[in-house]
Amino acid sequence: MNLNTKNKPLVEAGLIAAMATIFVLVTIFIPVLTILVFILPVAFIILGIRYPIRYTVLSLITVCIITGFFTEVVYSLFLFVIFGPIAIVMSYLMSKKRNEFEVIIAGTIAASVSWFIAIHIISIVSGINILDQIAYIFKESIYAQLDMLNQMNLNSELRINEAINYFISIFPALIIIQSMIVSVINYYLSISVLRRTNQYAGTTPTFSSFKLPKHIIMGFFLLSALAYLSQYVQGIYYENLLHNITALFMFLLFLQGISVVLYFMEKSNLNKVFKVFILVVVILMRTFLTFVALAGFIDAIFNVRKFNKGQ
């Protein structure tokens, strides 16, 4: 019995590795499911919460080695670099009972650093500038969507080039935003799985209670001022810094705005299906994006939901 207890973590690590490998291969060979690869860390987060972190690392390495036999070695290494750090960091902090804000922020940092490292490695190995390739794809997609290839005028060309330049300038912010979204999804999915298996007894706040730190507005203006002053430092492109700070700030306000919408929908007597419909429309319709961010901004200043100061 004691032997079985000692071997249990190793057995579960092996099972997780086997299931994760199958999952990865399915996302590779069925392109429509590729997007699901971003929830891969869930399995390793759960393993890291249940057992010492070394089993998570061992399971991750096993998945990468086996995946390398069926795909290119570069892809398996890419998986480890991208998803290894976020799984290890989040599982470690969750096992230490840290609050969700700390876990998500740490996961965001780990994922962001991983992406920047992966992009740099790919650029060195392939000899291709990744940003140039992304800009090219972005430009071609704009042409395809607007059907302007045969009727392009100079002003339209200039506007598209401006859009591409702006997109490239905020690329770091987009990586961080994407990393934050992935961290949030993996955190709540992990909690959900642990709850269903009766391995999590804590309480998880609903997203309607999400609230940015009370000094976020002051922090934004301070960072913006520092970014503006950086124009006097040689080699720093202060406009790019401002663009990235603004993009991140707007995304955070949008998140708080969504939580405000959810909060008031929960207070209403609307049908659940209708609530989901409203939420989808608010998120997908560009017309509402500014209003949602504005709602987040107002709530950040005036505490519209009347949460306690400590929240």
Automatic annotation (TrEMBL):
One Pfam family recorded for the sequence: DUF2232
Signal peptide (residue range):
none
Q: Tell me the keywords, alphabetical order.
A: Membrane, Transmembrane, Transmembrane helix
Q: Which domain of life is it from?
A: Bacteria
UniProt keyword Transmembrane, yes or no = yes
List, alphabetically, the InterPro entries matched. DUF2232
- The residues that cross the membrane are 15-46, 53-71, 77-94, 101-122, 163-189, 216-233, 245-264, 276-298
User: What is the protein's name according to its record?
Assistant: Uncharacterized protein YybS (DUF2232 family)
Q: What is the lineage of its organism?
A: Bacteria, Bacillati, Bacillota, Clostridia, Peptostreptococcales
